[in-house]
Amino acid sequence: MHEMSIALAVIGQVEEAAGRAGDITAVREVRLQVGELAGVVPEALSFCFELACAGTVLEGAELVTDFVPGRARCAPCAHEWAVGMPPLLSCPRCDGGSTDLLSGRELQIVAVRWEDGRTPAPTREPIPEER
């Protein structure tokens, strides 16, 4: 199951970023883009992520996966289409075999939400005047 190695890599990258940011007390959410053609089962990745976060600054963090559909473009006729699963890589318009994969292979961290140990400065709201 390569989802565990992906989860460990994500956790390592987030821990490294948290270390550079300094004073991070907890990671609350990690958002990933996962392409349709990346070969990742999101449910398996979530399960592995939860297990691998135990004992780290990410313990209890939510993993949010944003699905990215596969899209391709035919080089000869410039037609674009949804690749789907199983992937259709020849052009449905001209049957051309020279295609460019535009999206669907993504597997990247796009956002992390964490807390730091600093006390936030109080906001100064104007007090409404009584009438």
From TrEMBL:
InterPro entries: HypA/HybF. Keywords: Metal-binding, Nickel, Zinc. Ni(2+) binds at H2. Transmembrane segments: none annotated. The keyword Zinc applies. The keyword Metal-binding applies. Zn(2+) binds at C74, C77, C91, C94. It holds the Pfam family HypA. Involved in the maturation of [NiFe] hydrogenases. Required for nickel insertion into the metal center of the hydrogenase. Belongs to the HypA/HybF family. This is Hydrogenase maturation factor HypA. It comes from Streptomyces glomeratus.
